[in-house]
Structures are given as structure tokens and as C-alpha cells.
Amino acid sequence: MLTRGLIAVAMVALFRAAPVSATVSSDAVGVQEVLDRESATEVRSTAAFLEAGQVLEVPLVPATPLRCGLAIIIADRRTTVDAVGAPLRDELEHGLEFEPSDRTSPAVATSENGLVIIDACREREPAERVLLRMGSPRGAVTVFTASLPLGENTRVSELVARALDRVDGPSSRRADLGPPLSGGPFPSRKRRGRQRALRLGATNVLSTEATADPTGEGTIAMTLTRGCHTVRVMSAESLPRDVDAELWDAELERRFARDRSDLPDAHLSACVTTATAVAITWKGASPEGRVVIEDEITPIGEGIPSAFGAQAEASIAKLFHEREAPMPTVQPFSTALGSQGATELHLAVEPNRCYVAAITLSRGTARGLRVSAGDAARPSLVEVPRGVEAASVHFCAQRESALIHVDVPGASITWLLAVWLVGAEPHDPAMDVVNLLTGPAL
Q1: End-to-end CA distance of the chain
Q2: Taking a C-beta distance cutoff of 8 angstroms, is the pair 395, 352 a contact?
Q3: Number of domains composing the chain
Q4: 432 inside domain
């Protein structure tokens, strides 16, 4: 009887619903306290456990002339959640795209340290519901919806972020980092930037000037020629500023790059295969101050494959450009095409030689990329989150065969894998004749 009782207790403990982690549950208490203190009404909470890509719909409190709805979504700090406020329209039921870089339909917000807040009154149309999509492999979320006096949503959102210590930035508690970095006078920053660009292979540096508006923000239109570009946005004032910027494809409304670093100058990187009209937006410059935009242009290497489409060519070129690595001068000795799911490739290689493998999406959007390459016992591994379209891994061969494992979760995806031998040089047919005449070196 005693044994049977112990087994029953163990079974109850095993199948009892696991509570949400202490961090998320205590954060939920913190959100509730802020909403109670700020006289929020119609407060409701919804908890759910979502798998990757799963969508949850939660109704918002209807807006009135004097009050507005607010949704506060909290999850573990390492969990990524996308959220969007949307009206109740039939065409949005199954066709809403969760793309953080899309500026054309309701704005998508991505969680920072597990927190995302949707203000129903700031949408293009009054939001009547909030849609969530899990970006991580899985995770628990808690959604608070409430009604607040008109104009109070922004202030309450800041109070919640501070109460949970989940403001933008590192997930650990912020310390006093001192005054902002100055980077030195503007002329020296500009000179050092140009010298560095030329040292890394840039063939041209174009400079443009603009004037910020009274709030320190601004937008300028440019055209990027074929190649890889590093666009630097600099406040030309002597006082240290923290300039943040974004680079957008003006035609496709797609974001190429964003800089939110705590540095005086913003650096934006993009590679394009044809002339592309772009828009550069910035904030943080001196009010009505002079802003200098420099475009550092580096040619796309001859070894970047172009036979698989412009998107694949630009993505692989950007891998080398952002890592400040020399671009290949010869075409990859091996390429492969694949689709979503897990794929294993066996590659014939030379022992004691090193290789670089690059993978990029040529169609579709994946929930992440994972590539391992080399010997099965000691592979080199790289893993990138959703939203990153390309990755590269370096490995050295110990045998005459290398195993490459590719894992791309998602649907309707096509990817390209290219492998280069490190140190390979362009083949010169004339050297074959020289080697034949001179014989092998002793």
C-alpha cells in the first residue's frame, strides 16, 4: 500500500501542469501592478504555449473617444515573439504577413528581451486585435490587454519596460556606462573611415550632405550601384551624438540594414547586383545640424556565383563584406541546391586543407539556419536566427571526405550552398606550359 501511494504521488507530480518560469510569472505580477497603479480598466490576461511559427489571436479592448487599447506581451528574455495590431477584416484572417521589414501593411513589432507592446491607437487603422507569432522554437507567452486614457499608452509602456528591466539593449541589468563615446572630432572620424574603407578594398567613396530637421531626424534618397556598400551616417557637429539610421529599398519597401548602436556614427551595410534606389533615414543628429552620408563602394568578387539569382549573389557577397574578409577570386569548387528540412551532403576534399562554406536562401523565409561542416566527430557549426538569410562556416579537412549538414526549418524554401578552398587562386593556362617545360620542383 505504501509503494502504491508513493507511485500515485509521483504520477500526480509528473502530470501536474508545469508553472510558467519564475521570471515570467514575476514579470506578470509587475505588469499587473503597473496597470493597477495607472488606473487601467478592463484588464485581462491570456497565457499560452506556442510552437515555432504558431499564431495566437487576442482581442483588444475596443477604443473610445477618450480611451485606447494596449496589449503587453511578455515571454522569456531569450524568446522572440512578433506581434501586430490589426483591424477585424476578413482579408487579414489568413493573409497577414509577419515581416519585420515590411512597411506597407500593419507595422510588425519584434520583442526585445521578451517584451513587446502594441498601442492600438498608433496603428494606421484602429486595432481591434493583436496577432502573435512565435519566432523561437517554442515558448510561453502572457498577454495583458487593457484600456487606458487617451495619450497615456506611451508613458505606461515605458513604465512597464522599466519595471521589468526590459528596455532595449542587453538582457542583463544596465549599468552606468558613463558619457557617450565621442569618437573624436568629425574631420578625424571622416578621415579614419575613408582610410579604413580603402584598406578593406573599397574602390570609391562618395560623400553627400543633408540637414536634419528640428528633432534631429531626416531622410535622404540615394542610388546604390552594383557592389557592396557601407553607408556611414555622421553628425558633423563637434558635440558627441548617437546617430541611429536605417537603409531601405525604396521600391520594394524592404529594409536592408539598421544601426541602433550607442556610437556617434551609424554604419549600414548592403550588397546589390543592379542599381537600386534606396532611402536612408536617421535620428539622433543635432537639431537642424549638418549630416554627412558617405557611401563606401566595394566590388563584388569574381568568385561569388551569379548563376543562381541576384538575391543569392548579393547575400553571399554581403557575408564576406560584413566580416571584412577578402571576397573569393575564383568560383566555388562545389555548389548544391536544397529545400526546407534537414539535408546531409558528402563532399570530396583534400586532407589538411581548409574550406569556407556559405549558405543563403534564394527563395522563401526560414525560421533560422543551421550548418555544420567537417569531420563527423569534430564539425564546425554555425546557427543564425530567423530573419538572417545567409551564414558561413570555416572548416579544415582531416580526411578525403567532409560531411556537411544543413537544417533549414520552414516551408517553400530554396537554398544555395557554395564551398571554396581557402587560398585558391585563379587558374592561369600559361602556367601549365611553364610547369610542363620546367618539370616538377625538387
Answers
A1: 86
A2: no
A3: 3
A4: no
Q: What angle do CA 432, 433, 434 make, to 5 degrees?
A: 90
157 & 27 share domain: yes
Q: Which three cell numbers mark 168?
A: 532595449
Task: Report the SS3 class of residue 109.
Answer: strand
pLDDT digits (tens, 9 = 90+) for 287-332: 888 999 999 999 999 999 998 889 899 999 999 999 888 899 999 9
Closest listed residue to residue 144, CA positions, set 41, 1, 252: 41
Mean pLDDT across 405-423: 90
- What range does the domain containing 374 cover? 323-421
Q: Judge whether 434 lies within some domain.
A: no
Q: Side chain identity at 211, as an amino acid letter?
A: T
Mean pLDDT in residue range 15-24 = 45
Helix (H) or strand (E) holding 42: strand 41-51
**Burial bucket for residue 22 (CB in 10 Å: 0-12, 13-18, 19+):** exposed
Cell digits for 346? Answer: 558528402
Taking the C-alpha atoms of residue 80 and residue 102, their distance in angstroms, rounded to an integer, is 18
What is the C-alpha to C-alpha distance for residues 158 and 165, in angstroms, rounded to an integer? 10
Confidence (pLDDT) at 62? 80
Verify that 61 and 149 share a domain, yes or no. yes
8 belongs to a structural domain: no
For residue 129, pLDDT beyond 60: yes
pLDDT, mean of residues 157-170: 67
What's the pTM value of the predicted model, to 2 decimals? 0.60
Cα within 13 Å of Cα(185), Cβ side: 3
The pLDDT value recorded for residue 314 is 93
For residues 139-163, average pLDDT: 83
Q: Which residue from 306, 307, 310, 301 is spatially nearest to 363, judged by alpha carbons?
A: 310
Q: If we measure between CA atoms, which residue out of 361, 369, 370 comes closest to residue 413? A: 361
Q: Which long-range contacts (CB under 8 A, 24 or more apart) does 251-256 make?
A: 251/276, 251/277, 253/102, 253/103, 253/104, 254/101, 254/102, 255/100, 255/101, 255/103
Give helix 22-37 / helix 153-163 axis angle, nearest 10°: 140
Is 86:57 a contact under the CB 8 Å cutoff? no
Point out which residues pair with 254 in neighbouring strands: 249
CA dist 50 and 208 (Å) reads 47
**DSSP per residue over 204-231, as a string?**
EEEEEEEE--TTS-EEEEEEEPSEEEEE
The x, y and z cell numbers of residue 216, run together, are 534631429
The SS3 call for residue 238 is coil
